[in-house]
Design goal:
With about 475 residues, this protein is of the alpha+beta class. It has 12 helices and 4 strands. A hairpin with a 4-residue loop joins β3 and β4.
Length: about 475
Amino acid sequence: MDATRRTITLVICVCCMAALGGAVGAADEPYLELARRGMIAVQPMDESPVPLPPVNIPDPTGQAGAWNAEKAAATVRALTLADLRLIAQQSNPTLAQAQMAVRAAQGRQIQAGLYPNPEIGYSGEEIGSEGKSGMQGSFVAQEIVTAGKLRLAQSAAGHGATAARHRLEAQRWRVMNAVRAGFYEVLLAQKTVSIHQDLLQVSNEAMDITSRLREAQEVSKAEVLQARIEAERAEVRLFMARNRHRTAWYQLAAVVGQPKMQPAPLDGDLIRDLPTITWDEGLARLLSGSPELAQARSKIQQARCNVALQCAERHSNFSVEAGVKYDGAGEDTLADVGVAIPLKIFDRNQGNIVSAQAELIAATREVERLELELFNRFAEAFEGYANANRQVQLFRSNILDNARESLDLVATGYREGEFDYLSLLTAQRTYFSANLEYLDALRELWQRSIELDGLMLTGGLASVQ
């Protein structure tokens, strides 16, 4: 009985040692010491939940109940940019994908730090020898992890989770920028429809005046035909402008994640809402706040932890095993204790260490490459912004007013017979051409402003990488 008690006590001690195996491994953590000195950033566990998009979408009309396209179409209240951003935040599928990527990375971080499970089993020897049951019993085994490998693996996975959070932030910027661009594209399309409606009205008035002058034998038939052609061309342009407006709305609806949302009035100002951007402030904001750069820097820390982990793999884990058997022949209770340590003679993880070091260098260079790429993209966008901004200022200060005044003077003179139809046609085309060029410049200005103000992140429906 004393031997049996000693055996059972020994088994219990081995089990306790297995359960506390982390403390055994923690005694040999040279690479975690490097982390404490700042050479490796150890990422703490972050198990905070990632918010999921709610099932019901708030109604931007302010009415109770879940939002839907029919209700939006029936309301008289115009939608604001904030309304559409709220819908997109809850309906755009890429945001849910990015959120789930963060949750998956959190799961990998948890899994990387879990200790190996112990093993239990049955053993039997010399069964049937001399007609006896032989030696039969059970055992428990546990792998002991050394050199702080679990903490290093969990830290590397933690930096991966941080990178996933930065990727989620980048996708939020992309979606919000896409909604903003679509919002003002719809406003520009509305303005274009209005311009073409004015053009059709002026063309019809010119056709009526020309027809009356023809009846009075003051103009030729060719001028009447020309006026009719211009009116018909204006009608075709108006039809195309309305189609462009409808398409712009559908594209906006797709970005916010509600493709069945019917066209509704928008509450926004194409001039008042324009942001003011300078080179120095814009570039400094980009380089300091870019989630793309933050994600790349997280990958450097992840690569550093991986290097430390691969170096720690050179230190062998070991296994302990203890068991109890009953010898049927001798009627004795026996105990088995074993320890197995792999000898790192041939495989010292050399290849994985070289690979991890190469990945660390590549991750460091990726940050440098991305900084240069952002600088290049910012410079190109700022050039377009500066040019378009200057165009918009000139059109608003001089060109549009002069074109409008010229058209009014020529139209009045044409009615009184002071100008021929060619002069009227030239004034009409100059006025409407100036207005359309102005809208094109304003569209370019908005596109570049959103890029610069939105940290150069575009693609609200692009697949989340």
